[in-house]
Amino acid sequence: MIYQKPKGTKDIFGRETRRVEKANTLARAFFGQNGYEEIKTPTFEFTELFSRSIGENTDIVEKEMYSFKVDERSYVLRPEGTASVLRAVIENKISIPARFLYIGTMFRKEKPQKGRYREFLQLGIENLGKAEPFYDAETIYLAREFLKLVGAVEFRIEVNSIGCPKCRIQYKTELKSYLEPKMNRLCADCQRRFEKNFLRIFDCKKESCQPVYQAAPMITDRLCPECGEHYVKVKNFLNLMGIEYAENKRLVRGLDYYTKTVFEFKSRALGAQDTLLAGGRYDLLMKELGGGDVPCIGWAMGQERMLLTLPENLPKIEDPKVFFIAVMGERFAQELLRLRITVIDHGFICFMGNPEAPIKHQMKDADRFGADHVIIYGENEEKEHYYTVKNMKSGEQVQVLKDNLDKFLTAVV
Ligand code: HAM
Q1: Separation of 353 CA from ligand 1 center, angstroms?
Q2: In this structure, are 272 and 339 located in the same domain?
């Protein structure tokens, strides 16, 4: 019997692992330099954390969480990272302002398709304690710079503002009087959503609902003075930073905690699930979870989706060259270890051959491991103070004087 992985999960190995790990290394360095410290939170949390933050009436909480009970307590595998970060900040009394980076697996029981999994990797940042519009633009800027750094090139940025509870009260009344006479033209989901989670209706993809929403009043045009001014300033900073974006008044997001600015990075390479990275401001969530009055903004990116958008030939995350060291005889074991350290110090991948094995076997092994170069060392080399280096791709073999090995390795690209 051959075991299969559960529906909606994915094995990541080989080149994909290297690409994800390289992106993670770049993220730690890049966001580290921008003041973001990595945080690791548990993969499961108490259910209430997410129902409270993401919202009782969202798709995620209503039908997509993996939940289980242990000793009468109800837990879920985390569907996202933001709520966990805030919970950790409150619980550990971490001082604000604070900036966090997180990288980890999330779980949602969605219908699997290209770019949509039930267990997926997210890389996200949260900037806690800053209310000013500059930071909305900075967060978007850092997302764009990071995507450029990992080599994802084809994406477009959409922004919107969905205001605050103050703007929404008035707006909901206006939207209700617009929709009431047309309610019977809306799908059952939208009719239900309007009562519980009214902004979400704009996310409906059904053709029957589209014409109704085309002429509907939009929250973006009904912001209170404070939210309106905030939004204008965010767009102004985006322009000053040279960030190209489109305003999408129907961008409302699927999680309830957002206030003011929301944004998504989309890529055509992804097909139907075209959102590569998404986020926004959530100024009320910390308080909602029992913390202080702390305005926050952040985003998360799906890493499997990131992989789908990376071009085949990626100069920035080129795989390092592979070396194989073949020494002839166990008395060269010390030399083997010394050589390994030198090769690794140059950033290459290094395999060590078994010194007791005949050179023919070691060369075969080097081939199996996909070595680009084999460094050979035996009696002749010892006597004459050199290494033989074979280029496995061209078959060319050269003698490199011991003292010149560093120079030789530096020239290998
Ligand atoms: P989200 O839009 O639910 O936001 O997810 C963010 C990203 O995670 C999506 O744009 C997508 O790339 C990826 N993603 C979501 N669901 C799946 C899935 N089923 N399979 C593969 N990838 C997926 C959040 O999670 C918020 N916590 C983002 C945030 C951070 N907002 C503020 N701070």
Answers
A1: 44
A2: no
